[in-house]
């Protein structure tokens, strides 16, 4: 994309009404809709042929996951902006999109201006993940990212049966050390007990 050219955006969603709404919004915002796709197969073919500056892709497509599209793009380009759309409230989907290489994650229920803003910011920083309006999920991701390798090991051990003493022995550490790690895990994940930690960890795809 040259400095004067309008950014080109490919829209990938199996609902024509969704594509139409986004197309109108981005064109009003001075961007160009260079194509539309309703499936994973169509999307990959158009991306390879048109090399858009940005893609807006639904997480759920008729012939596969939108994450497959995200991963394929990132294997071939580090500069393309990738905005993932979804109806899902699950934080695990947000985390999966981030790990796949998405630039931004937007709920379909968000105002259309949020989608336009996500495209603009992603064009500027395609590898700087953002999720407008999903603050709590990002806070959880941030908390999980601060877990040390040992804390992560302790966290993963919590799903096994046994007392703290039993789990400590299985990790070859003292019960006091185990409890110290456990306290840090509870603080970072913002939970109060073992069940809360397990539930949060599963939601973050850590278990």
Question: What would you note in describing this structure?
Answer:
GO terms for molecular function: DNA binding. Residues 8-123 form the Response regulatory domain. Keywords: DNA-binding, Phosphoprotein. Pfam families: GerE, Response_reg. Residues 140-205 form the HTH luxR-type domain. The model has no long low-confidence stretch (mean pLDDT 89). Helix content is 53%, strand content 14%. The protein has a five-stranded parallel β-sheet with strand order 2-1-3-6-7, with helices on both faces. The chain has 207 residues and is of the alpha/beta class. It has helices at 16-28, 40-50, 66-76, 91-100, 112-124, 135-145, 149-157, 164-170, 175-189, 194-203, and strands at residues 8-12, 32-37, 54-58, 60-61, 64-65, 81-86, 104-107. It folds into two domains: 8-134, Rossmann fold; 146-203, Winged helix-like DNA-binding domain superfamily/Winged helix DNA-binding domain (Arc Repressor Mutant, subunit A), CATH 1.10.10. α1 links the parallel β1 (8-12) and β2. The longest helix has 15 residues, at 175-189.
Characteristics of this structure?
207 residues, alpha/beta, Rossmann fold, Arc Repressor Mutant, subunit A, 2 domains, 5-stranded parallel beta sheet, two-stranded antiparallel sheet, 10 helices, 14% strand, elongated, DNA binding, CheY-like_superfamily
């Amino acid at each position: 994309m040259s400095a004067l050219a309008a950014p080109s955006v490919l829209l990938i969603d199996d609902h024509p009404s969704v594509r139409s709404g986004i197309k109108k919004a981005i064109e009003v915002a001075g961007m160009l809709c260079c194509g539309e796709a309703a499936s994973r197969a169509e999307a990959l073919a158009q991306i390879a042929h048109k090399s858009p500056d940005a893609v807006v892709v639904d997480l759920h497509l008729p012939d596969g996951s939108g994450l497959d599209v995200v991963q394929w793009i990132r294997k071939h380009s580090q500069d393309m902006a990738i905005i993932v759309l979804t109806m899902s409230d699950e934080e695990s989907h947000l985390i999966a999109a981030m790990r796949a290489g998405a630039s931004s994650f937007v709920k379909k229920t968000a105002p259309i201006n949020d989608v336009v803003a996500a495209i603009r910011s992603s064009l500027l920083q395609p590898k700087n993940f953002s999720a407008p309006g999903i603050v709590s999920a990002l806070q959880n991701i941030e908390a999980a990212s601060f877990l040390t390798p040992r804390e992560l090991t302790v966290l993963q051990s919590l799903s096994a049966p046994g007392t703290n003493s039993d789990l400590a022995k299985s990790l070859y550490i003292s019960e006091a050390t185990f409890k110290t790690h456990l306290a840090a895990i509870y603080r970072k994940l913002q939970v109060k007990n073992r069940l809360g930690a397990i539930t949060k960890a599963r939601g973050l795809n850590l278990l």
